[in-house]
Design a protein that fits this description.
With 452 residues, this protein is an alpha+beta fold. It contains nine helices and 18 strands. Strands 1-2-3-4-5-6-7-8 form an eight-stranded antiparallel beta barrel. β16 (286-290) and β17 (293-297) form a beta hairpin. α1 (71-90) packs parallel to α9 (415-446), α2 (93-123) packs antiparallel against α3 (180-206) and α2 runs parallel beside α7. The radius of gyration is 26 Å and the shape is elongated.
């Protein structure tokens, strides 16, 4: 059911299926929807309706909006709020502070994403109706020029509402009226900004290190299994076909290596030895038990790279590219069934992960805990940037597909068809988020999510 809210988020009336308006308890009829107007029982004008179900007065000033209750989304937000509250109540002061830092950093990621859309929209001459940080009822609001800037109660998400973004608009500065190439830039800007933020966060995590890890073997552990094939000075090029550029690539490719028919870890490794590329075939690694499962053992050390300005820039850049590749490889693994649903995490799972890495960091120092959080947030912002560009309805990548089609056809796809696709995609996305959140909650209590 739809409801009418004022600018402060307070519910005023309920809208019934037949278009009649009742008081907020849905009992007494007070008016009805008549075309693009809302009139009372005597036919007197109460509100005018504009784009995006906004309500305006005779002067065109926004005074409220019509919104449909979304129980799935509300449930996810409520569950997340409960988890964060419980963590804050039952944790030590330092842990609670770290959770707050994590939430603020998460909101920073959303802010940077929406800021990308906002800045490119403004630069392209597209009218921005509202730029909001957070979701739910407004707690702060001011208007500068033509744009409303608002801070909302729940620090989860945000949006940049552009004129004519999801509906037809006669405004010459509407999103749909801008040149196709400008709209493409606006759509991809959010993801680009997230990856730029990932670069900055990656640099912050690397900066305190005196050295960086390379992919060149410097020495072996005593009785190392891999020394039968690998040699000191070997630079690892690929593992099981996965190209290795950084120590993160090295770790990811080894951690995701499967056991062979004999229950052993023997991935195919290609190295650069004495200037030549050599395929060593299957290199046997040792293993150990971790939580009842076999895990591969890395039995060699890699050579260090000294931290200086140029190496810091180079390692940061390679680290971001490595993270993007890791995201794509993980998504491909989910599609092909290599990774299970249990390994997915939503907002609640991310909050739990932040708490865990913070707790691990606290064992040494508060600063280490903060750096652990920053490292996780770097992964999240790059994930958001990459996933948002997937060609799926309701995501920026879905919009990008329609714009590319328009660029090729030289005429847009009818707005109603694109609207249906995005609406269906949003429903599926919200349902998927609810399922992942439910899995996260189960994991909190049992240690294993759905499909585990």
């Amino acid at each position: 059911m739809k409801h009418i809210y004022d600018n402060d988020g307070e519910k005023l009336y309920s809208v019934r299926k037949d278009g009649t308006i009742a008081d907020k308890h849905n009992k007494k009829l007070v008016g009805k929807i008549d075309g693009d107007k809302i009139v009372d029982n005597d036919g007197k004008l109460m509100y005018k309706m504009s784009a995006r179900n906004k309500l305006v007065d005779d002067n065109g000033e926004e005074v409220g909006h019509i919104r449909e209750n979304n129980f799935i989304y509300a449930g996810v937000l409520a569950a997340l709020a409960v988890i964060i509250t419980l963590v804050c109540v039952f944790s030590f002061v330092e842990s609670a502070l770290l959770i707050i830092i994590g939430v603020l950093l998460f909101e920073l990621i959303i802010f940077i994403h929406e800021l990308g859309h906002f800045m490119t929209a403004k630069a392209s001459g597209v009218k921005v109706n509202e730029f909001a940080l957070g979701m739910g009822p407004r707690i702060l609001r001011f208007k500068k020029g033509e744009t409303i800037y608002s801070l909302r109660l729940l620090p989860i998400g945000g949006f940049c509402a552009m004129e004519g973004e999801d509906e037809e608009s006669d405004n010459p500065r509407a999103f749909g009226k801008a040149a196709c190439w400008k709209r493409i830039i606006i759509v991809v800007a959010g993801a680009v900004m997230n990856i730029v933020l990932g670069f900055i966060l990656m640099m912050i995590t690397l900066m305190p290190n005196s050295q960086f890890a390379s992919t060149t073997i410097s020495k072996f552990h005593e009785n190392a299994t891999t020394s039968a094939s690998l040699k000191v000075g070997d630079e690892i090029v690929s593992i099981n076909g996965y190209r290795v550029y950084t120590s993160q690539d090295l770790s990811f490719s080894l951690v995701t290596a499967n056991q062979n028919s004999d229950g052993e870890f023997a991935p195919e490794i290609v190295v650069r030895r004495n200037g030549e590329t050599v395929n060593l075939g299957n290199v046997k690694f040792g293993s150990r038990e971790v939580d009842g499962k076999k895990a591969i053992v890395l039995d060699f050390y890699v050579a260090p790279i000294q931290n200086n300005f140029w190496n810091l820039i180079a390692e940061t850049g390679k680290g971001v590219v490595s993270t993007v590749r890791l995201v794509w490889a993980s998504l491909f693994g989910l599609i092909t069934g290599r990774f299970g649903f249990n390994e997915l995490a939503g907002p609640i799972g991310m909050t739990s992960a932040i708490s865990q890495v913070a707790s691990a960091g606290l064992q040494s120092s508060f600063g280490d805990a903060v750096m652990n959080i920053v490292s996780v947030m770097m992964m999240i912002t790059v994930n958001l940037g990459v996933v948002n560009l997937l060609p799926l309805p309701a995501l920026d990548g879905g919009r990008l597909v329609f714009l590319i089609v328009e660029l090729i056809r030289r005429k847009p796809v009818p707005a109603k068809y694109e609207g249906w696709v995005h609406a269906i995609g949003m429903i599926v996305l919200l349902a998927f988020m609810a399922l992942i959140s439910f899995s996260d909650i189960i994991r909190l209590f049992t240690g294993t999510g759905l499909g585990g």
